[in-house]
Amino acid sequence: MVYDYYASGAEDQWTLKENRNAFSRILFRPRILVDVSKIDLTATVLGFKISMPIMIAPTAMQKMAHPEGELATARAASAAGTIMTLSSWATSSVEEVASTGPDIRFFQLYVFKDRNVVAQLVRRAERAGFKAIALTVDSPILGRREADIKNRFTLPPNLVLKNLEGLDLGKLDKTSDSSLASYVAEQIDQSLNWKDIKWLQSITSLPIVVKGVLTAEDTRIAIQAGAAGIIVSSHGARQLDYVPATIMALEEVVKAAQGKIPVFLDGGIRRGTDVFKALALGAAGVFIGRPVVFSLAADGETGVRKVLQMLRDEFELTMALSGCRSLKEITRDHVITEWDHPRFSPKL
């Protein structure tokens, strides 16, 4: 049940597969004879300096993977000098995660029908030293995750959604399908719209990053609404099936943003080469989800440290072999995609 919850996508899982496959259709144009004896991977995200442009996406209920759950992930992110995003539906509270040390963390927010609950969560995240709100905007209703329906997914009895404890929001009780889908239908505000970003800004001074944008149109509206950043995301392909792979949607969003706000990407990142491709297409950084929960399940904090180190090493190698010494040297000219015009037209 737990494996299927982490691994599966919506409906036919076409987008789940495409999130990976699309990367394999983007090829490199490496530059040679560049002095790559020194390579700088540092990135700046919303004004915060981090060791690399690889960050941790919010994934729910991490104690299903390992007893230390989000606390192990937080420590691994700190050790790697990067940002962790904590899910609203974490099995560790914002306060517990904050107690692992004063590092840069974002809080992922679902907007509940009860706005007092939302205000409480945001205030708690602020007090605990979180630096930004990642507002999930692609989930007014939970996608049809058929593995969860078949398994009648529910939270194991020894675990609770720690951030929601004591807030009188009901429980994930066993149902005839997915208890999470039923819970979301009951609790999450389906009327959430662009005006609510203004409302959120009225209750917090934290920057708001809009997570779940896939089109140029929504990018322009997000900027007008005052978003501090955008995460191009399809919720790990768990919401609407047959949306394009996020790496395919990325460039459209980047062009529409016109450099006004940073654009990040999650979905399908499994190697350092994927990170490089995302940056070449205009991403300011990437967030990884499933690699974290699987490495957490395999070996706790050590596992998450290892996966972050592997991605870092592979990304650094890709930079060196592409002739890039810093992130700003990674350009669109370093990749070729299927929508590029042929650079050389063959003579007939």
From TrEMBL:
Single annotated GO MF: (S)-2-hydroxy-acid oxidase activity
Coiled-coil portions: none
GO biological process terms held by the UniProt record: defense response to bacterium; hydrogen peroxide biosynthetic process; oxidative photosynthetic carbon pathway
Compartments, record wording: Peroxisome
Active-site residues annotated for this sequence: H235
A Pfam match: FMN_dh
Reactions the enzyme catalyzes: glycolate + O2 = glyoxylate + H2O2
Family: Belongs to the FMN-dependent alpha-hydroxy acid dehydrogenase family.
Protein name: (S)-2-hydroxy-acid oxidase
